[in-house]
Amino acid sequence: MNSFLILSVTAAAFLLAGFVKGVIGLGLPTVAIGLLGLVMSPSQAAAILVVPSLVTNIWQLVTGGDVLLLTRRLWPMLIGVCVGTLIGAVTLPPNSGQAGIWLGVALIAYAALGLVKVQFKVPPQSETWLGLIVGFLTGVATVATGVFVIPGVPYITALEFDRNRMVQALGLSFTVSTITLALALAYQGQFHTEVAWPALLALGVALIGMWFGQIIRNKVKAETFRLCFFLGLLALGVHLALRGLL
Fold first, then answer.
1. Cα–Cα distance for residue pair 203/223, rounded to 1 Å
2. I want to staple 22 with a disulfide (CB 3.0 to 4.6 A). Which of 30, 91, 114, 214 is the partner?
């Protein structure tokens, strides 16, 4: 495959993925891996994804402050993510198409409920045990599909953060997921020196796209953001399901 074509597709994929992430707080892995899949294998795409995903997630996390407060509330889920990802790396094959189909279907169902304004709420006394379970399942799903969204994103939205705090909480969850996914990829031998330059290019354009996306997010009303958020989840779900079927 022509290296110029690979770099061009990488730049376009991460510019768009960064923009989507800047607007709704998620979507970088799914958009980027989906487009990179046109020119490379899913495992190669996941290896390129690690650095830009980690940096953009940290940026998303630290914007707004109160990181310690978020960590104190989300620690059960974060521990579950670590355990689930590491166990999944040992027991599951990466990027399972069948898992991607079911993950996409679940995401479509959740987005549809959000669009018709069915709201879920997690009681404070349930956050510890439910967070551990949700985190574990999210970690396992991450290894199987390369995507961090189910069931972690519905759980975080059910905690009823305000718009910017929810995006920040997603950044915290995704940061932990990215680090543990990187360890899983290293265990599976997916890191190679040839992904270094595409990864650096991906990081640069993803940051530019994310910056533009954040500008858009800060200018829209809360209800418009909510609509964009669930439409984004719906699109991600359709994409995952179709990718698993094809």
1. 30
2. 214
